[in-house]
Amino acid sequence: MIRVTHILMMGSVLIVTIWTYGIKHESKQSAKTLVRLRGELAKQNTKISLLEADWAIMTNPDRLEKIAKKFQSQLQLQAIQSNQIIQLDELASFFSIVKNKGSDLDGHSTTDEINSLVYK
Fold first, then answer.
1. Is the pLDDT of residue 82 over 90?
2. Which has fewest Cβ within 10 Å: 25, 39, 63, 106?
3. Rounded to whole angstroms, how far apart are CA atoms 35 and 116?
4. Alpha-carbon 26 to chain mean position
5. Distance of alpha carbon 77 from alpha carbon 87, whole angstroms
6. 91 pLDDT exceeds 90?
7. Residue 94 CB partners (closer than 8 Å, separation 6+)
């Protein structure tokens, strides 16, 4: 009887040892994965910061003004006029015309109707 008990106890100790080793191995793998993911996250955050800084430089009004002046002959930009700005309620009718009457049967754009809304 004592031998059977000893064998059962040694078997259970062996099973618990193997189970504990499995848990330890899984936790080490999870820790490695966590470290790797944190490193990737830090790299991505760095990239985002660099892109935001680049965006701030690219959209700097002074820079854009210099570029607009430099390429004025090709771009043919003009200053915006107050009658080109429409109200929010006018915007809904603008989109319904574009959606319903974007082009006629021949494929020609209906810009006259759009221009009448934009250039009131």
1. no
2. 106
3. 60
4. 33
5. 23
6. no
7. 86, 114, 117, 118
Cβ distance 97 to 117 under 8 Å?
yes
Give the residue carrying structure tokens 């080109």.
84
Do residues 110 and 97 make contact, with C-beta atoms less than 8 angstroms apart? yes
pTM of the full structure: 0.49
Strand partners, 103: 109
Residue 81 CB-half CA count within 13 A: 6
Provide, for the chain, the percentages of residues in helix, strand and coil under a 3-state DSSP scheme, each rounded to the nearest 5.
Answer: 80, 0, 20
Structure tokens at 46: 């760095």
Q: At what angle do helices 88-100 and 111-118 cross, to 10 degrees?
A: 180
Distance in angstroms (rounded) separating the CA atoms of residues 100 and 16: 72
Sole residue written with tokens 């820790």: 31
Instruction: For 9-63, write each residue's pLDDT tens digit.
Output: 999 999 999 999 999 999 999 999 999 999 999 999 999 999 999 999 999 999 9
